Predict the structure.
Amino acid sequence: MLTNRKFYIIGFVVSLFLAGVVSFYASSSPDGLEKVAQDIGFIDTAKDHTNADGALADYGVKGIDNERASVGVAGIIGVTGTAVVAGIGFKLLARKPKKDGN
Amino acid sequence: MHIPDGFIDVQTSAVFAGLAAAGVATALKGARTQLDEKTAPLAGLTAVFIFAVQMLNFPVVAGTSGHLLGGALAAVLVGPWAATLALTVVLLMQGLLFADGGLTAIGLNVFNMGVLGVWAGYGIFLLLRKLLPKNKSSISVAAALGGLLSVPAAAVGFTIQYAMGATATFSTSAVLSAMVGTHVLIGIGEALITGLTVSAVLASRSDLVYGWKNKNQKLEIRSAN
């Protein structure tokens, strides 16, 4: 059994590696919904995303031209951002009110 | 599986935004009682891991790819309430920062992946856990099969939304069969990733796994009676 520290460090590093390195090798074919929309014919009803020109749109960092670096950095930003938001959120949620409080 | 803006009309999107909000509100209440200081970090890590693995589209057939949804995985690791919240965080990050999933479609996406996918996967998991021998391998197998079916369940969710408010006019039955057919195949990938991940966490920290210890607690209560 791993200690807490080791377990969470390994989990986080694996996530960073997947999003930061392995993501470059992900399939770029349309996903299931996109493919169905193409085949049936309603893909054209999709609108551009509100943030289609955003700094991280489509998992690439604006300004980084190297594709491998661009998706890798975007992945690392996403993993870190998710860790901060979910980490703090779940910690606050799990905090039990003091017994004498109610 | 991330619905962009435009596929589904604004009224239907608003209905599902309301349903998703109700689901998240209920999940906040439920997770508050289920999580403690020991399990909260795993809920955070689950969200992080799902974000990372959702970036890894794997090929299925004929120029189609799929990626993990993670609802069953999260439900088995941290319970269904925290699972809905973890998926919601992931979907918000994707929609707001990475332009993945339309902003008007956020309710549709949270409903399909964060509510429907989670509960379909968790329901199958509970059923199989009851039927299978009481050991860790069964937990991984039940989680994998929960994952497998959670993907077509989310696809059915989209089809219902399409039937209610598509901006296009193609027949719902064509959309249903194409969506379910494709997503059963993607579900095989979901099953593999879910099963392997649950096995890895069970092997290293089974004491943290909701779908495993929660069963043991129940057994303890029975033997005490």
Summary: The mean pLDDT of chain A is 94. Chain A touches chain B through 62 residues (CB under 8 Å). The CA atoms of residues 12 and 33 of chain A lie 29 Å apart.
